[in-house]
Amino acid sequence: MKPLNYAILKHFTKVKEACADDVIEALKGEYGHYKALKKPAVIEAIMTGEANGLLEETRFDLDEKGELRVYYRAHEEGAATINSYIPD
Q: How far apart are CA 80 and CA 70, in angstroms?
C-alpha cells in the first residue's frame, strides 16, 4: 500500500480532473481508516502537488452546501513525473 500522499497524487494520473471530495471518495475504500483522509489534509496534499508543478487548477464551483470546490488535473509532464516516481 502506497503512502496516502502518493495515492492522492497517483489518483490524478487516472482521472481527467478531481476535487478533494472526489479524491476522498475514490480512496476511502483502501485508505478510509487513515486519519489524514479528511478534506483539509487532502486539500493540503493537492496544493503541495500544485506548488511542486505536478498538478494544475482546472476550474472551481460551489457544492450543494455552498462550499468552494477547486478541481485539479495532472498535466502531461506532471503525470509523467508522478508515474516515474510512484509506480502502480
A: 22
Cα 62 from Cα 71, distance rounded (Å): 11
For 48, the grid coordinates are: 503541495
- φ/ψ of 6, rounded to 5, equals -65, -45
pTM of the model: 0.93
- DSSP letter (8 states) at residue 55: -
Which of 40, 74, 41 lies closest to 57, judged by CA?
74
Span 5-30, average pLDDT = 97
Compute the C-alpha angle 66/72/76, nearest 5°. 165
CB 57 within 8 A of CB 19: no
